[in-house]
Design goal:
The complex is a heterodimer of chains A (207) and B (110). By secondary structure, chain A is mainly α. Chain A has helices at 9-25, 31-50, 57-68, 71-74, 76-90, 93-103, 108-132, 154-159, 170-203, and strands at residues 137-142, 145-151, 163-164. A 3-stranded antiparallel sheet of chain A has the order 2-1-3. The chains are: A mainly alpha (207), B alpha+beta (110). The interface between A and B is medium-sized, with 31 and 28 residues.
């Protein structure tokens, strides 16, 4: 992006601060989207100033930026939406958590999704518990029927006459379940995003 | 008269129709962001938070209703021009039908 040059130092400083705020707000996005948003808002500022009397640089700039709005507020829905697109496209957990965090304020459903992802940690916890206490963690059967997937202390295992059926296969099985659930939840998130985009455009962007 | 209610209602109507307004402004002409905002203000006398137009245009682009292209300027600061796509034109035409039907209905009952 080519920066705008001001003759007045204060105007230059106000402009630079605003550009920094745009950059900070769009930081979660990929480089291309960041540059696109920055260039478009920069063009808005430049074109706006051209229409005004150049002797009042500071006043013009302050008014223009005021009308444009605070980047943190104006760009938030755009950043949240773009991040969600990116996250569901890549399956990258880092992007997914960022996207959910940005979208949490946009509806209960995103909180449900955050909760679904969090449940995956339950399975991770079971794997760690299995390594630490191999006899107390697993898939327990009682008299040939499913009893429990999880943790039972040794005493209860004996009393209830439970049999752990997976042994160390428990760990790869849990890993498999985690991966499958992760993909399923992410696909659901993607579907949800597509289904509600139009609704979002109405409810989110012009509030 | 309930000023507060009226203000909120007006603001909701504006929010709900901004996409319709922007598409209408782009119907016969391509515009870059700043110019588009000026056109909206000039033609509708609606004061919009200017920054909200850019997320809106991004949304319309994603929905395939408009396309955009960067056009280099001698200043070195390019402009991003928006144009209505065929889908955009068809969608706008349906939106207009809906709008006129709604207007007729409202006139009938008011």
């Amino acid at each position: 992006m080519k920066p705008i040059q001001f003759t007045n130092q204060t105007a230059q400083k106000i402009y630079s601060d605003y550009i920094t705020r745009i950059k900070r707000t769009t930081q979660p996005l990929d480089k291309k989207d960041q540059e696109e948003i920055l260039m478009e808002l920069n063009s808005h500022i430049y074109e706006g100033l051209l229409q005004l009397d150049p002797t009042n640089e500071i006043e013009n700039l302050v008014n223009l930026l005021d009308k444009l709005g605070a980047p943190e507020e104006v760009l938030k829905p755009l950043v949240a939406q773009k991040k969600l697109e990116q996250a569901t496209k890549t399956f990258n957990p880092k992007h997914i958590f960022k996207a959910l965090a940005l979208n949490l304020s946009n509806g209960v459903l995103y909180i449900v999704f955050a909760f679904l992802y969090l449940t995956l940690f339950g399975f991770v916890y079971l794997i760690i518990a299995k390594i630490l206490h191999p006899n107390q963690v697993g898939l327990f059967f009682k008299e040939g029927k499913f009893h429990l997937l999880g943790i039972r202390n040794s005493h209860q295992v004996k009393i209830l006459e439970l049999t752990e059926v997976l042994g160390y296969w428990f760990i790869p099985t849990m890993l498999f379940i985690i991966v499958v659930l992760y993909i399923l939840i992410t696909l659901l998130l993607r579907m949800k995003r597509k289904k509600f985009t139009l609704l979002h455009s109405i409810t989110m962007y012009y509030l | 008269m309930n000023e507060n209610f009226l203000h909120k209602w007006k603001s909701q109507v504006k929010k709900g129709t901004l996409a319709f307004i922007a598409l209408n402004v782009l119907k016969d002409h391509e515009y870059y962001g700043y110019e588009l905002i000026e056109q909206i203000k000039k033609n509708t006398r609606i004061e919009i938070a200017e920054g909200t137009l850019y997320p809106l245009m991004n949304r319309l682009k994603k929905e395939g209703l408009v396309t955009s292209k960067w056009v280099e300027q001698t200043s070195g600061i390019p402009r991003k021009y928006y144009t209505l796509t065929n889908t955009g034109e068809a969608t706008l035409s349906e939106m207009s039908n809906f709008w006129f039907d709604l207007e007729k209905s409202i006139k009938r009952i008011s």
